[in-house]
Amino acid sequence: MIIFGASGRAGKVLVDTARAAGWETLTPAHEKCDLLQPRAAAGYVLAHPEAKAVVNCAAMASPDVCESDALGAHLVNALSPGEMALACRHTGARFLHLSTDYVLDSRRPGLKAETARCTPCNTYGMSKLEGELQIIEALPESLILRVSWICGNPHRPSFPETVVARALRKEPLAAIVDKFSLPTHARDIATVILACIDKPEESGICHLCAQGEPMSWHDIASVALSCARELGALGEAPSITPQHLANVSFFRAQRPIHTAMSSLRLGQILNHSMPTARDTIYRAVKDFLQTADRREN
Ligand SMILES: NC(=O)c1ccc[n+]([C@@H]2O[C@H](COP(=O)([O-])OP(=O)(O)OC[C@H]3O[C@@H](n4cnc5c(N)ncnc54)[C@H](OP(=O)(O)O)[C@@H]3O)[C@@H](O)[C@H]2O)c1
Q1: pTM across the whole model
Q2: How many domains does the chain have?
Q3: 170 alpha carbon to ligand 1 midpoint, in Å?
């Protein structure tokens, strides 16, 4: 299996999970295969026709970086995945790609299905949507998994883990109350990818995230602290100052408001529903605390 973006938050967990499941993995490094040159991606796939599957976890994944480098975002997030898909068409490899809830129209609340309208509000979302379109045009049999708020890679802490780390250091906490999505555990992404490689009949777009009601960053922070308490790492949960998107100045790119996704289709494909958001956050916090413990001892 070829895994692009193997050093990333999702990619690293996929590599570990795939190897544990007995897969041989080819992991082209950024320096050796720079996706700013889309033909490099195709060249790598074509040079390894033996690969049964190609998974693209690589991306210019920061909305703020994409906002200041629209050309880079287009090359990495749109053209390169299209080239990978085209190359898979030649080699016959199954192609799976990670996309994002940021492609969705985020103006109305509620859980969004795969058929929901797409109107990205920033350069990152536009480049990822263009990537989806390029892939479907090049190889309609591809499977595109839209994920959101990836957590659960203890070596690359994301929001829930960072909140807990700050709380343990007794630092002040603040979180946004008016932006809503659902988290996705990196291990669940890896497990779903491995399961879907063997389901070539499944193609197109599929939403992959925890199940439940849409959550704000503030909700996620509260649940993360409650999990840390349950795990015995934290005494009294500290308060979290509510923040509003309109009043924070640290984002360069506009953020979408309502992008929580429904994973109903994936549940039908796998014959089981996705874990709850609390379970997703609990596992992420637990792994993070255990990894931090190991580092200290
Ligand atoms: N993180 C989230 O919460 C989130 C939410 C929704 C969707 N997603 C999507 O999920 C996927 C995985 O995200 P992630 O958080 O794991 O991303 P990440 O941690 O930022 O990792 C991105 C990976 O892409 C590689 N990469 C970036 N630019 C490259 C280039 N020019 N050439 C070659 N490789 C390059 C990076 O390599 P280096 O580290 O060596 O640069 C890294 O391995 C992406 O498609 C992202 O859009 C993520």
Answers
A1: 0.98
A2: 1
A3: 30
